[in-house]
Amino acid sequence: MKVGFHISIAESIDQAVDVAVAMKCGVFQIFTRNPRGWSFQPLNLKEVTRFRKKIEEHGIKPVFDHMPYLPNLASTREEVYLRSTLSLKAELNRCSELGIPFLVTHLGSHLGAGKIGGLKRLISAINDALNETKSNVTIILENTAGTKNSMGSSFEDIKHVVDGVEDLKRIGVCFDTCHGFAAGYDLRSDEAVAKTIRLFNNILGLEKLKLVHLNDSKGDLGSGIDRHEHIGLGRIGDKGFRSILHSDLVKLPLIMETPVDDRRNDFDNLCKVRELAK
Questions:
Q1: Local confidence pLDDT in tens for the 278 residues of the chain
Q2: pTM
Q3: DSSP string spanning 162-196?
Q4: Between the chain's N and C termini, which has fewer beta carbons within 10 Å?
Q5: Has 179 been annotated as catalytic?
Q6: Residue 106 appears among annotated catalytic residues
Q7: Quick check: is 176 catalytic?
Q8: What's the CATH number where 148 sits?
Q9: Residue 31 backbone dihedrals phi, psi, to 5 degrees
């Protein structure tokens, strides 16, 4: 079982590897830059060299990068859409420099203009970015919780995007358990988990699933609330995560984006996952 966390690069990108090793993670995810701004500096070449060397030394693979928060690849606002597409291209190039094979992205919001137009803009942005960045980096589409105007909360909508991508070798899917549950995919029992996996396979094909974001949910089933909770302490609960961790999903990289507070830290959640996986 490959399980780990989204890890901060506050000190430096290469030190994220040190944190992952110290926590005995088998996999991890990072931002390559400040996720809350548009501007960014070029990667530090010494940090890039150290990052790649440490990854090879410790064998923590694959590493995942996550797009920053501001880009909206389905936006109707031309300036935002242009900046978002440029941001996607830049992030693909940064992944290539770092030797990171996967870039996770949210599908954005149509801002009330309608899902059909949002899907067209999203597909166009992805094709543009893949055509201009000749590398082996794969874009991973993350399902959403179904909040107002958001794109990609259903497997059918994600399939629509995948079908519109020209380079199918460079497109995959991330299933976030919190988002999926909030969007209406039940995960609270063996039967529910099996049904959700079956639906995914029938619509998208399990070969497209590259990553699971392992998060409990503060919101109830179908609530549309995107709020992550500690493993087992949310609405999915211990029983649900025991089912998830004894399903085919456990064959995939599992990355947690759980809170850190006075109840638990990351290591506590890692211990909880290993306990439920026994």
A1: 999 999 999 889 999 999 999 999 999 999 999 999 999 999 999 999 999 999 999 999 999 999 999 999 999 999 999 999 999 999 999 999 999 999 999 999 999 999 999 999 999 999 999 999 988 999 999 999 999 999 999 999 999 999 999 999 999 999 999 999 999 999 999 999 999 999 999 999 999 999 999 999 999 999 999 999 999 999 999 999 999 999 999 999 999 999 999 999 999 999 999 999 99
A2: 0.97
A3: HHH-S-GGGEEEEEEHHHHHHTT---SSHHHHHHH
A4: C
A5: yes
A6: yes
A7: yes
A8: 3.20.20.150
A9: -95, 145
Which entry of 94, 170, 213, 235 is annotated as an active-site residue?
Answer: 213
Q: What is each CA distance from 268 to 9, 198, 255, in whole angstroms?
A: 21, 31, 14
Q: Which of 56, 57, 69, 132 is catalytic?
A: 69
Calculate ∠ Cα 173-174-177, nearest 5°: 140
Structural domains in the chain (count): 1
- The catalytically annotated residue of 106, 170, 230, 242 is 106
Structural domain for 222, as ranges: 3-277
The span from the CA of 105 to the CA of 140, in Å, is: 6
Burial (CB < 10 A; 0-12, 13-18, 19+), residue 202, is exposed
